[in-house]
Amino acid sequence: MDTLDGADIGKKKPADRDAEGLEPDIFQDGKELAGFLKKEFEMTEKEAEKLLGCMDGQGYCLGHRDGELYRGDLCYEQGKIKWEPDSIDDAASDVMEWNYILLQEAESELMHAEDGAVYSERKKYLEALREDEKILDAVFDRTKHGKELDAAAAALADALIQDMEKEGMDAAVKKMAGQIREAGEVPPDHSCTLKQNTGRKR
Q: Exposed, middle or buried by CB within 10 Å (0-12, 13-18, 19+), for 160?
């Protein structure tokens, strides 16, 4: 079993760089990514390294060209990287989502472990994902998506207090539950589809 991290992150080179050098340059490590983002987004080298590893584990890489961030799809075509403009907000959000899905799967697998050895292995894997989650959550909280989520939660809490004062606790909680349910039916526009089998073929 693998976590989101790719074993060979930082060793890849663009497979289809043209003669004019128009292909984005792939970030080789967390230091490069953190340095590139330092003016617009605070990120430690450890956080950046984790993000790159998680992207790689899902078949993507991050690169830059002309001061802009790009995401490369390593599974698009054999020997070719498909590049698209990206943002650190969307990249961090997608990685957190992927890790959440792996956490759910790992928790389910742990519950169905056949014996002690399998249980121990799956528990160790789950703990590694939870450690990843702490790092990825901290990054996500600093993105525009994380800040929007915090603002929405604060607004919801304020509305709940006001409704409790006007309508009572039961009615206010019921109203809030309905609002949360409605919000959950709208998929976020920054969501990214999980790669089939949670990772690319190596």
A: middle
